[in-house]
Task: structure prediction
Amino acid sequence: MSSRIVVLISGSGTNLQAIIDACDLADYPGKVVGVVSNKCDAYGLTRARNANIATVSLSHKEFSSRECYDQALITKIDQLNPDVIVLAGFMRILTPAFVQHYQGKLLNIHPSLLPKYQGLNTHQRAIDAGDKEHGVSVHFVTEELDGGPVILQAKVPVFESDTSDDLAARVHEQEHRMYPLVVKWFCQKRLNMHLNGKIEQAVLDGSILPISGYANEE
Result:
């Protein structure tokens, strides 16, 4: 039976599309059963509807607090009975209660080589720092912003002539390859998050992954 994937978005949904396309492959072990957005005009919702996937639009502006919004979000997501929740450009900082509710089932993609450049504007920050390489990380979500254990990273070169848009395009190409792969690992039950005391660790095929995640590509 296919694992049930719920994807959270705020924007155009290019990573969502990559996952939808992967799910169309005969041997892919998961299926996107719902797409949730905090913005009703997010183009990713159109992508979902075009693929006959259920959509939920829940604006954070209609709630008095982050906590109230996240509780309503939990209710909507739980109705979809997910096995994994995939954050794909969901531009909200999640409350501890939300993260705890889905502990070990939340994946995120972040456009930097974590732990470098947590937060926003990562491409320009890498350029401003004179970095020779930049990249993207897929990680489990914990209560620390962009601080959960890394599962997989991909590196791209930074050229002297690069603008942030140039670098973003190079990173996006890697994102669209690696996110469906990590989701596949999770759906195959090869990937999980292990708690060692208070330390969260990513585990693939029974082995604890190093700080930079899985070292080889498939």
In short: Strands lie at 3-9, 30-37, 55-57, 84-87, 106-110, 133-140, 150-157, 191-196, 199-204, 207-208.
